[in-house]
Amino acid sequence: MAKYDVMIIDDDLFDIRKAEKALRGIPQMGEVKSYTKAIDGFNAIIDNPPDVLLLDVEMPDMSGLDLYLTLPVDKRPPVILYTKTEKYSYKGIKMAVADYLIKPVSFPDLYIAFKRALEQKNITVKIDLEIEPSGQWFKFKNTDRFIKFSDVVAIASIKNYVIFHLRQAEEDFEYRLTMEQAEQLVPKRTFVRVHRGFIVNTDFTTKIVDKTFVLPDRPDLQLKVSDVGLKRLYNIN
Fold first, then answer.
1. The dihedral sign for the CA sequence 50, 51, 56, 57
2. Whole-prediction pTM value?
3. Among 135, 136, 118, residue whose Cα is nearest residue 127
4. What's the mean pLDDT when you consider all of the chain?
5. Which of 4, 136, 184, 214 could be bridged to 51 by S-S, CB 3.0 to 4.6 A?
6. If you ran DSSP here, which 8-state letter would residue 88 be given?
7. Contact in structure between 138 and 95 (CB atoms under 8 Å)
């Protein structure tokens, strides 16, 4: 099987680690190189362009858009832009980017973007893994709501309900499900039941201190992990 190299340029090391983890789950993945400084990434591309570039847009010294457009045309690899906002999507279209992703990136979205990027080089990659759903519709009394799993930080049980904790605390909601039903609902690649009462999205975790998750996006949440939960985490990672 042919392998293809990817370079990541992003000033946020936490986002880099999440992207690296997802990329290494792709069977056709070759070497993954990462740079937190735009100028270092720029120089690395000049020396040896990767097959695909995963590029953050908002960086302190040089925006991803400026970096890419500054590259000589013959040094520009197919690019996937990824950032925390949709406001650069039109510029991305004008640049003919392979894809435009919103952080945090999910494995299915990144895999499909990787495939699209290679297609710009006339390389066809067969997606040979089962792609799990990106979200779920939830029905409420007066409205229906679609929730992207990439926005779910954790799920906690409370009596006969579960609480979906999202990136924005004001978006949290309760739904009548058992923890077993919730566990079956979410993608198994990133969600782990770490405690009888908690399911966590590992894309949002950075470390565990005193058997409590550190969640930069939701520092208000105090989610405990059991010994069994730790074993499950090691198995998924």
1. positive
2. 0.64
3. 118
4. 90
5. 4
6. T
7. no
